[in-house]
Specification:
Layout lengths: L21 E6 L5 E6 L3 E6 L5 E6 L5 E6 L5 E6 L4 E5 L5 E5 L9 E6 L5 E6 L4 E5 L4 E6 L6 E6 L5 E6 L4 E5 L4 E6 L12 H5 L1 E5 L5 E6 L3 E6 L4 E6 L10 E4 L5 E7 L6 E7 L5 E8 L3 E6 L5 E6 L3 E6 L5 E6 L15 E2 L5 E5 L6 E5 L2 E6 L7
Antiparallel strand pairs: 1-2, 2-3, 3-4, 5-6, 6-7, 7-8, 9-10, 10-11, 11-12, 13-14, 14-15, 15-16, 17-18, 18-19, 19-20, 21-22, 22-23, 23-24, 25-26, 26-27, 27-28, 29-30, 30-31, 31-32
Length: 384
């Protein structure tokens, strides 16, 4: 599955969708394939051009909550409620090993991602820990401990040895991967909601690092987002806190650390807004879009040339990130909910030319490109 490679369809059953709702979906680095993770204990690999199912990764004992490609697209990493993560060969479907055992997590694994060079994997868990693994040996390099509750997500910066984690106790931390030390611990400045069971998932808790690791954005269920100067270890700005600022339900940081894209409630109960902010000082750059239904997705493409917003009724808009003019739009299925009750975000291809979105029942898949729906698998609108 490296860039430019050919993948045979042997054994594939085209159009076979998940039996239960999906948690996540992503593109491969070369945009040729899509990867979905589902509560039915599997992940699935799809041909983006044809919509055919290539193969199913089946081996977990509980729901698969996330799936990711290695940087060169040759490997797949899955995280599961069965307390493990698994490594798969993308072209054959062979399970190459399990990240678990005595050194592994003792509770559900919430996320699993590759390092930018593909040599390491980072997993976060409900057991309040984050673990750095050697991919080749599937052994723990070190365990990162600074949180007291469910660590909901963990991700690497793209060019330096840093990672950011977000926890259900309303804290976030930036780590020096080489030493395992906390570089900056963002204390619970976000209001902590009373939670029971998986309520932390319901409210959302996201964190992102810029490509160089110097800027971070965090967002939690108190309907605010915070912009952080990692190098100085200080708060730059709070979005959604002050009078006249709309509440923030999601925040995405452009990879160059220049802009923050948010969505949240508008001035009335019947309106929702997507806005752009300067990451340098938190000043508003512009009101990007308005919708009658809540947005489910607001993200940047990997090349930062485009941004994507998707509203609840399924209207997706792709924006040119230089002029902030509408590049193209397409009508997708209505918003779908994951097993945890949150919206399933659409996936935006690295070049900003393709979108993968869940069907309304959360089990099927739709692909759109440059203003046109190319195919749908599963759901009430499946093409014959």
């Amino acid at each position: 599955l490296a860039q430019g490679s050919y993948l045979a369809l042997h054994g594939a059953r085209g159009g076979e969708c998940h039996r239960r709702k999906m948690h996540s979906l992503v593109f491969s680095p070369d945009e040729a394939y899509g990867l979905t993770a589902s509560e039915d204990n599997t992940a699935k690999l799809w041909n983006v051009s044809s919509g055919e199912l290539i193969r199913t990764f089946d081996g977990h004992g509980d729901g698969v909550v996330s799936a990711a490609f290695s940087p060169n697209g040759s490997l797949v990493l899955t995280a599961s409620k069965d307390c493990t993560a698994k490594l798969w060969h993308a072209s054959t479907g062979e399970c190459l090993g399990t990240f678990g055992g005595p050194e592994g997590h003792t509770m559900r694994v919430n996320s699993a991602v590759f390092s930018p060079d593909g040599a390491f994997a980072l997993t976060s868990s409900k057991d309040s820990t984050v673990k750095l693994w050697n991919v080749a040996s599937r052994t723990v390099v070190r365990t990162l401990q600074a949180h007291r509750e469910d660590v909901i997500s963990a991700s690497f910066s793209r060019t330096v040895g840093r990672a950011i984690t977000a926890c259900g106790d309303s804290t976030a931390a930036v780590w020096d991967i080489a030493t395992g030390n906390v570089k900056v611990l963002f204390l619970p400045l976000h209001e902590t909601y009373a939670r029971d069971g998986d309520r932390s998932w319901e409210h959302g808790w996201t964190s992102e690092l810029s490509r160089d690791g110097d800027v971070a954005v965090t967002q939690h269920g108190d309907e605010t987002a915070r912009i952080w100067d990692v190098a100085a270890g200080r708060l730059r700005a709070v979005l959604g806190l002050f009078v006249g600022q709309p509440p923030v339900l999601s925040a995405a940081l452009s990879h160059d650390g220049k802009f923050v894209l948010t969505h949240g409630r508008g001035p009335t109960k019947e309106s929702w807004e997507a806005r752009l902010w300067w990451a340098s000082n938190g000043a508003e750059h512009k009101l990007l879009d308005v919708s009658k239904e809540r947005y489910t997705t607001a993200v940047f493409s990997a090349d930062r040339e485009y941004a994507l917003t998707v509203a609840g009724e399924g209207l997706a808009k792709v924006w040119n990130a230089r002029s902030w003019r509408l590049a193209w739009s397409v009508q997708l299925p209505r918003a779908a909910f994951s097993p945890s009750g949150t919206h399933i975000s659409a996936a935006f291809s690295p070049s900003g030319t393709r979108i993968l979105a869940p069907s309304e029942d959360g089990k099927g898949l739709t692909m759109a490109s440059m203003g046109t729906v190319k195919w749908t698998r599963g759901g009430p609108d499946e093409a014959p």
